[in-house]
UniProtKB/TrEMBL annotation:
Protein name: aminopyrimidine aminohydrolase
EC number: 3.5.99.2
Single GO biological process annotation from the record: thiamine biosynthetic process
PANTHER family documented for this protein: BIFUNCTIONAL TENA-E PROTEIN (PTHR43198:SF5), BIFUNCTIONAL TH2 PROTEIN (PTHR43198)
Keyword annotations from UniProtKB, A to Z: Disulfide bond, Hydrolase, Thiamine biosynthesis
Family according to the record: Belongs to the thiaminase-2 family.
Thiaminase-2/PQQC domain: residues covered: 9-215
First-tier enzyme category under EC: hydrolase
Gene Ontology cellular component terms for the protein in this record: cytosol
Length: 218
């Protein structure tokens, strides 16, 4: 069995907490509190801005360490999508009257951004960083795709948000990232595999805390 599938089986409860969180489930069933959505929007804009340098550092690691040239193109595609994402956040914030310039980062967000920064260090192995990248993107993909799947009652005005991460193209991209991570993990020594696993667990915990923050719980 491939490494990531093995971890997802072993840590299924944590993965489900991140990808079936009460906040995204409330979007899916239409009961979402719009002030929670606006809080998420403002905080996620701050997160995405910190995510850009993380992806830049990953690009550098791929260039130096990857055994497959196509990794760079996949990560560069992710970077282009982030460029779009930043513009989308600005438009969406104005639609919902959320002032991005006066949004103050919450403690959870600051801690998650600091964690991202720790992964930017040249000491962190490419395999560990690309596996973390897959986990960060996959949580949003799974969470928002679920808001669009059969039986969902997602409010019309939130469908575009769900489409952004829940669309099939983003799903395919996450699958490609998972393949890259699995390929690297297969060739890695035990200590790198353990570090990557611990990093994925930490990402999942931060993602749960991030959704909690949207609900005003932290
Ligand atoms: C907290 C968080 N995690 C993941 C993503 C997806 N790029 C995001 N926008 N925000």
């Amino acid at each position: 069995m491939l490494m990531i599938q093995k971890w997802l089986n072993q840590h299924n409860e944590l993965y489900t907490s991140a990808t079936r969180h009460p906040f995204t489930l409330s979007i899916r069933d239409g009961s979402v509190d719009l002030s929670a959505f606006k809080r998420w929007l403002g905080q996620d804009y701050i997160f995405v801005r910190a995510f850009v340098p993380f992806v830049a550092s990953l690009l550098l690691k791929a260039w130096k360490e990857s055994d497959d040239d196509s990794d760079i193109e996949v990560i560069l595609g992710g970077m282009a999508a982030l460029n779009d994402e930043v513009s989308w956040f600005k438009r969406e914030a104005s639609k919902w009257s959320v002032s991005l310039s006066s949004t103050v980062p919450q403690k959870t967000n600051l801690e998650y951004c600091r964690f991202l920064e720790s992964l930017m260090s040249p000491e962190v192995d490419y395999t560990v960083a690309v596996t973390a990248f897959w986990a960060i993107e996959a949580v949003y993909q799974e969470s928002y795709a679920h808001c669009l799947s059969d039986g969902s009652k997602t409010p019309e005005e939130l469908k575009e948000t769900c489409q952004r991460w829940g669309n099939d193209g983003f799903g395919q991209y996450c699958h490609t990232l998972q393949n890259i991570a699995n390929r690297r993990l297969e060739k890695s020594p035990e200590d790198i595999i353990s570090k990557a696993e611990a990093t994925v667990m930490r990402v999942l915990e931060y993602e749960v805390e991030f959704w909690n923050m949207s609900r005003g719980e932290t």
